[in-house]
């Protein structure tokens, strides 16, 4: 089954989330304000999230068009 990239941004909370699955998972801290969402049973990456996303940029981000379909691949990183 083809995966789809879902984006969610909460402007008031300045929180951006990328997700490739609606499966249940949990967030693991990556560093500071960034988290990886992983499958609770398999540990497979399901997405990631960034808190204080807009604060990371000095200038506002201009909207950009990205041609579809977009191929995104998440890989599990061994630590």
Structural summary, described in words:
By secondary structure, the chain is an all-beta fold. The protein has one domain. It is 0% helix and 38% strand. It contains no helices and five strands. It has strands at 6-10, 15-19, 25-31, 34-39, 45-51. It has a five-stranded antiparallel sheet with strand order 1-2-5-4-3, with no helix packed on it. Strand 3 and strand 4 (34-39) form a beta hairpin. The chain is globular. The termini are far apart.
Element layout with pairings:
Blueprint (H helix, E strand, L loop, with lengths): L5 E5 L4 E5 L5 E7 L2 E6 L5 E7 L28
Supply the key terms.
79 residues; mainly beta
Shape: globular
Mean pLDDT: 81
Question: Which regions have little confidence, pLDDT < 50, spanning 5+ residues?
Answer: none
How would a crystallographer describe the biggest sheet?
5 strands, antiparallel
Distance between the termini: 29 Å
Rg, please?
14 Å
How many DSSP H or I helices?
A: 0
* Total of domains: 1
Multimerization status: single chain
Strand content: 35-45%
Q: How many β strands by DSSP?
A: 5
Q: Helix and strand succession?
A: EEEEE
Helix share of residues? Answer: under 10%
Spatial strand arrangement across the major sheet: 1-2-5-4-3
Helix-and-strand structural type: mainly beta
């Amino acid at each position: 089954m083809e995966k789809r990239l879902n984006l969610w941004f909460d402007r008031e909370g300045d929180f951006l989330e990328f997700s490739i699955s609606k499966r249940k998972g949990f967030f693991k801290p990556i560093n500071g304000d960034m988290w990886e969402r992983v499958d609770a049973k398999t540990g497979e990456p399901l997405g990631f999230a960034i808190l204080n996303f807009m604060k990371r940029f000095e200038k506002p981000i201009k909207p950009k068009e990205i041609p579809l379909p977009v191929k995104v691949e998440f890989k599990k990183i061994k630590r």
